[in-house]
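re: the backbone from monday

yeah here it is again, tokenized this time
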């Protein structure tokens, strides 16, 4: 089975920057669309960002566009989420996920949790006011 592992989450202050990482098998990083989701303190699962297999197409949610960047380094089997200008509303458990397809439809496909087959265990990000 595909195992994904997130890291980088910690307590930060509003306005700070933070980078999350996700590692997994090479067969996944060479052929799979991937994404980041977060679970809010209210237990809502929100889409954050998505990326196709080679990184030439990305999608960001409206709430993070202009502040976050998703990228990947397939040679090193790493998925990144660069977060800038963090707000208290960004607090949550962040999960990386991998799809069975190389690319998802940009018009909503990346934001659908059921399009992803494999999930990490999450890393906690807490943004204080």
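seq for it, each position gets an aa:
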């Amino acid at each position: 089975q595909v195992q994904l592992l997130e890291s980088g989450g910690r307590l930060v202050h509003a306005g700070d920057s933070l980078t999350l990482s996700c590692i997994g098998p090479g067969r996944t990083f060479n052929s799979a669309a991937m994404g980041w989701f977060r679970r809010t303190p209210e237990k809502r699962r929100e889409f954050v960002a998505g990326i196709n297999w080679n990184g030439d197409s990305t999608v960001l949610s409206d709430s993070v566009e202009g502040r976050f960047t998703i990228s990947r380094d397939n040679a090193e089997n790493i998925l990144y989420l660069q977060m800038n200008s963090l707000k208290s509303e960004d607090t949550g458990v962040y999960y990386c996920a991998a799809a069975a397809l190389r690319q998802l439809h940009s018009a909503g496909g990346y934001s659908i949790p059921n399009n992803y087959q494999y999930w990490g265990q999450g890393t906690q990000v807490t943004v204080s006011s």
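The radius of gyration is 13 Å. Residues 15 and 85 are 4 Å apart (CA to CA).
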